[in-house]
Amino acid sequence: MAAPAAAGSDEGPRSPLLDDLMPWSVRPLRTGRPWVTAPDAASLRARWNRLVRAPDAEREQLFGPTRVRTPWTPVAALPGQPGGTGRFAREPGPCPEPVRILHGPFDEQWLLPDHRLIDVARPELWRVADGHQVFAVEHGRVPQDTGPALSVTALLPDGHSPAGRPGRIRPLYRRPGGAEPNLTPGLLALLRARHGDTVTAESVLAWIIAAGRRSPAGCVVPLPADPARWSAGVELGRELLRLQLRGARGGERPRLPGGRRPYVRAAVPPVPSELSYDAEEQVLSLGSGRISPVPAGAWEFRVGGVRMLELWFERRAAVSGAGGLEAVRPRAWPQEWTSELLELIALLALLAELRPRQDELADGPEIGVHELRAEGVLPVPATARRPASVLDHQEEGPDGQFALL
Asked: For residue 234, what pLDDT is reported?
């Protein structure tokens, strides 16, 4: 199989980087304190209650002050969230309702959406996170990594990478309501001229998901000159998108067909001590718990060289010596986690099965960087790399004062 031309190669059509095609990107969130995220929402509410009821001296210690956030730091409201803006030490207010996020690739968790608790929340992402938005998340590059270059989600992603350098978060739309695609100006017109009027922002994202490849310079996206190859890639990308959205936008949640569907053969114990896999029997063991059949593709699915199933389990297994608010966690393994694990197994298995079709998209004539420059699509205008102005209302500033916009 021929690999796509490197982004910096002088031979043949140079493939553009994802950074050329979806130019507005945001760095990952930085919570500053791990206790504000958890695999279950109940733990977050319990952590909040323990924090606000603690004596002042203990409260500051439990809070976990950083250079960016302390209980006395004034902050503006988090866009779209009802959290307070009064200084936390003085008026913490009621516990904000936890929101579902994507914690790294493929791990759906919960976050306390209170700007006073998060070091760097990336408000520009919260402003465009709505029922129309889809986020593409680049994964940090690790040498010899064979995993996917990026993933997609309808949830707000924190952008964390399991290994290596964190990637970037790229919203599909620059404005709420699915308005103004985050595509470099002129790209849609060029692709429509080559592949027909059915080309949309969503089909461009589908192609990117299917064809994006890692490179030392970043995620490379070969653009096909052949309409048949484009159509095949978009069809495949739509299936990858449907799977990774996990039922969002009215779709179905990932599910393996009957006969291959994993089931719980032995109940997961209250505190599973370790995770292991028997490739011959296709059995995943959580302590004395047993799940099968589990395809090898799901077990071996890695991002940044890290097995996703192992990482998912480690984040939920009891942590020896955990202190502070992180120690507030379920005393026994919740049934919901088992259900989530079954779905994750199905998702990873289905993605692994589609990988060979993704590799086939690497061959064929391309619309290279030279042609994109000749058509005026590149270089990317500086304005396209900055967030759009989406403020049509006042956002509450620190201590209840409205921000001057």
From this structure: 98
Q: How far apart are CA 234 and CA 223, in angstroms?
A: 11
Q: Judge contact between 366 and 42, C-beta under 8 A.
A: no
What angle is formed at CA 347 by the lines to CA 343 and CA 353, rounded to 5 degrees? 145
**Per-domain residue ranges of the chain:** 18-254+362-400, 263-347
- Give CA–CA dist 18/158, Å, rounded: 19
Q: What is the pLDDT of residue 121?
A: 97
d(CA 354, CA 362): 14
Number of residues that make up the chain:
405
pTM over 0.90: yes
Counting Cβ atoms within 10 Å, is residue 55 exposed (0-12), middle (13-18) or buried (19+)?
exposed
Residue-level pLDDT at 167: 82
Q: How far apart are the first and last CA of the chain?
A: 53
- Specify which residues 289 forms β-bridges with: 286
- Number of helices (H), then strands (E), in the chain: 11, 15
Give 52's contacts (C-beta < 8 A, 6+ positions apart).
Answer: 59, 92, 95
Residues 30 and 34: their CA atoms lie apart, in Å, by 10
| Residue 161 reports pLDDT greater than 90 | no
Contact 101, 41 (CB under 8 A): no
- Cβ-based neighbour number of residue 347 at 10 Å: 21
Query: For the stretch 234-273, what's the b/e string if a residue is b when 16 or more beta carbons lie within 10 angstroms of its beta carbon?
Result: bebbbbbbbbbbbeeeeeeebebeeeeebebeeebeeebe
Q: What is the rounded CA–CA span in Å between residue 97 and residue 100?
A: 10
pLDDT digits (tens, 9 = 90+) for 96-141: 999 999 999 999 999 999 999 999 999 999 999 999 999 999 997 7
**What is the rounded CA–CA span in Å between residue 318 and residue 273?**
8
Q: Looking at this protein, which amino acid is placed at residue 367? A: I
Average pLDDT, stretch 338-366? 95
